[in-house]
């Protein structure tokens, strides 16, 4: 075999190796994008490290692919300084996948919101029917008043449960910001129903009990004896 033919064969083998390597690389790349698409569909949570700061967000890498995390998706609340997240590890989900545009967007906010909602639901579920709660009037509606019970929890006092007296509007007896005490009369599906009237009823019942409390029989006899003792009959 001539030297020229050997060189040509070597070049062909080299090009085949390049093509095979490129094909394998492309196949691996496609597998990564397919995996990312699956992670998006399954809402898989995973950790990434913030490697850079860019306009409007930060950069991280997933399986060697550059990913963008918008500032609005870094936390539950507004992030003033994205630089504080540099080199920090955060838990995220895949938000957008576009292989054609080579675009991968991640988010931490959805996970954080779900965690916060679960914690809030746990606090709500721990509130027992019959409990007496203290809170502040948060807003007034035509159908009732929402009471801020703290820790992000609110309860509704329906207009029929605000007062013993019949009122046309909650504004007749309540104002936003008023401190109130109310009894929990229902806690279902994460919604708390309250009654201010129930506490008024208890107060009135106690007053009635005191007002109508009868003395012991001995005390009655003594009182009648004293009455007749001081009674003068003119003949």
Protein topology:
Layout: H1 3-42, E1 46-49, E2 52-54, E3 57-62, E4 65-70, E5 89-98, E6 103-107, H2 109-125, E7 132-141, E8 144-150, E9 153-158, E10 179-188, E11 191-195, H3 197-211, H4 217-229
Parallel strand pairs: 9-11
Antiparallel strand pairs: 1-5, 2-3, 3-4, 5-6, 7-8, 7-10, 8-9, 10-11
Question: Describe it for me?
Answer:
It is built from four helices and eleven strands. It is an alpha+beta fold. It folds into two domains: 3-113, OB fold (Dihydrolipoamide Acetyltransferase, E2P) (Beta Barrel), CATH 2.40.50; 128-210, Nucleic acid-binding proteins (OB fold (Dihydrolipoamide Acetyltransferase, E2P), Beta Barrel), CATH 2.40.50.140. The strands form three sheets. It has a five-stranded mixed barrel with strand order 7-8-9-11-10. A three-stranded antiparallel sheet has the order 1-5-6. Strand 3 (57-62) and strand 4 (65-70) form a beta hairpin. The radius of gyration is 37 Å and the shape is elongated. The chain starts with a helix and ends in a 6-residue tail after the last helix.
Provide a compact summary of the structure:
With 235 residues, the protein is of the alpha+beta class. It is built from four helices and eleven strands, in the order αββββββαβββββαα.
Helix content: 25-40%
**Can you tell me the overall shape?**
elongated
| Continuous helix count | 4
CATH architecture of the largest domain: Beta Barrel
Could you name the ranges where pLDDT drops below 50 across 5 or more consecutive residues? 18-27, 207-214, 217-222
Share of residues in strands: 25-35%
Per CATH, the class of the largest domain reads: Mainly Beta
Number of strands: 11
């Amino acid at each position: 075999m001539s030297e020229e033919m050997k060189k040509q064969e070597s070049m062909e083998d080299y090009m085949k190796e390049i093509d095979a390597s490129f094909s394998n690389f492309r196949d691996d790349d496609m597998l990564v994008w397919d995996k990312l698409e699956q992670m998006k569909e399954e809402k898989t949570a995973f950790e990434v490290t913030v490697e850079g700061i860019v306009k409007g967000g930060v950069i991280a890498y997933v399986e060697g692919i550059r990913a963008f995390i918008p500032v609005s998706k870094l936390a539950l609340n507004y992030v003033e300084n994205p630089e504080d997240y540099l080199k920090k590890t955060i838990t995220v989900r895949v938000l957008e996948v576009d292989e054609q545009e080579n675009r991968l967007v991640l988010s931490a906010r959805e996970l954080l919101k779900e965690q916060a909602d679960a914690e809030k639901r746990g606090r709500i579920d721990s509130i027992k029917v019959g409990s007496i709660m203290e809170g502040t009037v948060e807003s007034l509606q035509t159908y009732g008043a929402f009471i801020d019970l703290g820790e992000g929890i609110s309860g509704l006092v329906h207009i029929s449960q605000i007062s013993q007296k019949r009122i046309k509007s909650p504004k007749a007896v309540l104002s936003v910001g008023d401190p109130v005490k109310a009894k929990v009369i229902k806690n279902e599906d994460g919604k708390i129903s309250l009654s201010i009237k129930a506490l008024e009823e208890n107060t009135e019942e106690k007053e009635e009990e005191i007002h109508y409390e009868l003395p012991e029989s001995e005390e009655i006899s003594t009182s009648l004896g004293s009455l007749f003792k001081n009674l003068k009959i003119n003949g």
